[in-house]
Write a structure and sequence with these properties.
2 helices; 3 strands; alpha+beta
Length: about 80
């Protein structure tokens, strides 16, 4: 891992087409701006982890979950 110290307004270049700019620094947080091509995914780690956990929880739902949901919503029972 590369660890850098940057001041507000300074930039970090990644490859030829990704630029990270330090926008603001307040207390224990730093605001950054990221310029990258549209095809490059930029995601916050905590959001990705939450989605993975939610998907795992949904996959572990009981076998009769669909029938119970339909019954709760007043829909027809599956055949």
């Amino acid at each position: 891992m590369l660890v850098l110290t940057r001041k507000v307004g300074e930039r970090i270049l990644i490859g030829d087409d990704i630029v990270i700019t330090v926008l603001d620094s307040r207390g224990d947080g730093v605001r950054i701006g990221i310029d990258a091509p549209r095809g490059v995914k930029i995601q916050r780690e905590e959001v990705v982890k939450a989605v993975i956990e939610a998907n795992a929880e949904a996959a572990a739902a009981p076998d009769d979950a669909e029938a119970r949901l339909r019954a709760a919503l007043g829909g027809p029972a599956p055949r």
